[in-house]
Amino acid sequence: MTAAPTPPTLALWKRLSGLPGGHKVFSTAIALRVPYFSTVLPTVRVLEPGRCEVTAPKWFGVYNHIRTFHAIAACNLAEIAMGMLAEATVPVTHRWLPKGMTVHYQAKAETGLRAVAELGEIPEFGTDGMDLPVPFTVYDKRGESVVTGEITIWVTPKK
User: Fold this and answer.
1) 25-50 tens-digit pLDDT
2) Which of 4, 12, 16, 136 is the most buried (most CB within 10 A)?
3) C-alpha dihedral (8, 33, 21, 51), degrees to nearest 10
4) Nearest by Cα to 47 from 118, 114, 128
């Protein structure tokens, strides 16, 4: 039995992440592919099937009216982590689309942030469409949880 092909995003990560500046090059590439991601200046730190960590600095482009990290900018960071996890996890024979997002704001985000999306286990991707809930937590630089939630994606075989 032959191994399933590596998803292209994961293959690019594996090529770049070990190189000097590779995390930044990879993160710039994803921001070019999905320009809205660039609003939080993301840097992918960890990418593997079932897990992704992305950081973003606190800068004036993500400020809200009280100069903390805007809640929706934190959601954008969580969506980047989920999207990269999906790209690294969903087989090349399938496609995925975000379907819904549940968010719980835990505390003010007064620093740069780190979003972690992680699956407890990777499901079998079959011939039927499936909802796949992807839990996430967004942490501040002290390691405190500031946002938690879940993004549900719809996964189907490619036609």
Assistant:
1) 999 999 999 999 999 999 999 999 99
2) 136
3) -50
4) 118
Bridge partners (DSSP) listed for residue 128: none
Q: Report H helices in the chain.
A: 8-16, 22-33, 71-89
Q: What's the rounded Cα separation, in Å, for the pair 146 and 126?
A: 35
First and final C-alpha spacing in the chain: 23
CA–centroid distance for 159 within its chain: 25
Residue 4: per-residue pLDDT:
77
Q: Both tokens of residue 90?
A: 């969903």
Ordered domains of the chain (ranges, CATH) = 8-157 (3.10.129.10)
Q: Which residues contact 83 (CB under 8 A, 6 or more apart)?
A: 34, 98
> CA 154 to CA 134: how far, in whole Å?
11
Q: Residue 38 and residue 73: Cα distance in Å, rounded?
A: 11
Please, is 86 exposed, middle or buried when counting C-beta atoms within 10 Å of its C-beta (0-12, 13-18, 19+)? buried
